[in-house]
Hints:
The complex is a heterodimer. The longest helix of chain A is centred in the middle third of the chain and has 39 residues, at 62-100. In chain A, helix 1 (3-17) packs antiparallel against helix 2 and helix 1 (3-17) crosses helix 4. Chain A is built from seven helices and no strands. Chain A has helices spanning 3-17, 22-36, 42-53, 62-100, 107-134, 139-153, 159-172. Chain A is mostly helical. Chain A folds into two domains: 3-100, no CATH class; 107-172, no CATH class. Helix content of chain A is 79%, strand content 0%. Chain A is flat. Chain B has seven helices and no strands.
Amino acid sequence: MTIILQILLTFSILSLVAVGGANAVLPEMHRQLVELHGWLDDVTFSQLYALAQAAPGPNILVASVMGWRIAGAGGMAAATLGMLVPAAVLAWGMAGLTQRLRGSAWLKPAQGGLVPVAIGLILAAGVTMAQASYTHGVMPLVVVAASTLLVWRTDYNPLWMLAGGGLLGAFFLT
Amino acid sequence: MPEAPPTTAIPTRAALFTGYLRIGLFGFGGVAAWARRVIVEERRWLTEREYAEVLGLGQILPGPNVGNAAVMIGRRFHGLAGALLATAGLYCAPLIILIGLCLFYDRYGQLPAVAPVMNGIAAGAAGMVIGTAFKMAGKLKLRWDALLVLLLATLAAAVLRMPLPLIVLLLAPVSIALSLRQAGLIGGAPAR
Lengths: 174, 192
């Protein structure tokens, strides 16, 4: 079996256990890539994770970067497809299921029950990101607070906040 | 006070792609905040509640919740083409940027010196994510028991650092039961 196929298979399995997205699957990704397959060492794994964080988009694309490092462009394609396709197929099936059950009385309330969990986990992601930024001093926390208020209480475009944070970082966090 | 009926618009296929392109491109530190902003506030494809429900389903499935939501929202409006366009839009800009970063890394063996800028952006993004959670909880007018579930989920993930699948497994059934009970479908509790 070529390495590309192995990468495809490994990330397909990871895709199916990634309930909660990238951060949930990171420990298992480390176990598979570093400990089981020995494709990457510890330091490289951490560096690649940091590299993926520097790009926008869903954090799950950390898989693409790992694939690149292991086997170049082919590895990147295999890791990305492996990570995205199985989960997307499940989501497709779930969408079909909810369309078919649309008439049933319990679907809406049942779906509504998932809402607080989803929002709670979004809040947790924000808090975790804020904690990480606090390691760079108090200044980032001011940015966190300002950005929270701006997004919560107003409809201004948050891009300004991101740009402001980046500028502040360039001058004060070096 | 009766709320004004939220007006939603069905996106064209091109709009589905460009909307998700925007979400992926601006989604530093995760895309949850931008996805809600574009879908609910800017383009009004879904109401606050509809979007939260799709996201809730996306949360219990494996994979990124916003990615799963893209498939479901795409399918809802334009079937297979919609699901593919939304997904492609979401991932294409970040992938191109990542390829650029990988090439840089391969050539120079280190990350470009953008760490301080990224740290500042990350702080702004953290606040954006927190603010989005507050905004959704407020606009959806969650009841006290739903707010309790919300805070438990946050506590378990951000403070206790419990694995997310475990949190979903523990809290989702409780939360669904509470919601069904509230609707008068189980337990014989009155609907109001």
